[in-house]
Amino acid sequence: MSNASGLKNEIEAAIEDWEEEADAALGRTTLTKEQEIEQAEEIWRSHRQDIEDYLRRISRETADVNDDLSQEEKDEILAKVKDLLERYRH
């Protein structure tokens, strides 16, 4: 597996973990909508730095490998992050 592919898999796994944790936390409670939003924002804050670090790493490290992730693959990862942000911030 190339360095770039490994990073892509690592990022996607981190996003999935974050999403599963948020879904599980929100799904097992009987919170008001406001409390759900607060809890989702707290989960986001707890994972935000990790996700941002992964995105910085992929930008930095894929520049150093021969089989870079394609722009389409990078856009796909960023779209997943954006989708999760929208889902859990509103």
Topology:
Layout: H1 3-27, H2 33-62, H3 71-89
Helix pairs in contact: 1-2, 1-3, 2-3
The low-pLDDT segments are: none
Distance linking N and C termini: 37 Å
**Helix segment tally:** 3
Q: Mind telling me the C-alpha Rg?
A: 15 Å
Helix fraction bin: over 70%
SSE run: HHH
What kind of sheet is the major sheet? none
Which geometry do the CA atoms define? elongated
Structural class: mainly alpha
Task: Provide the β-strand percentage band.
Answer: under 5%
DSSP strand count? 0
Count of the domains:
1
If you average the pLDDT, what whole number results? Answer: 71
Write a structural description.
By secondary structure, this protein is mainly α. The protein has one domain (3-89). It has three helices and no strands. The protein has helices at 3-27, 33-62, 71-89. Helix 1 runs parallel beside helix 3 and helix 2 packs antiparallel against helix 3 (71-89).
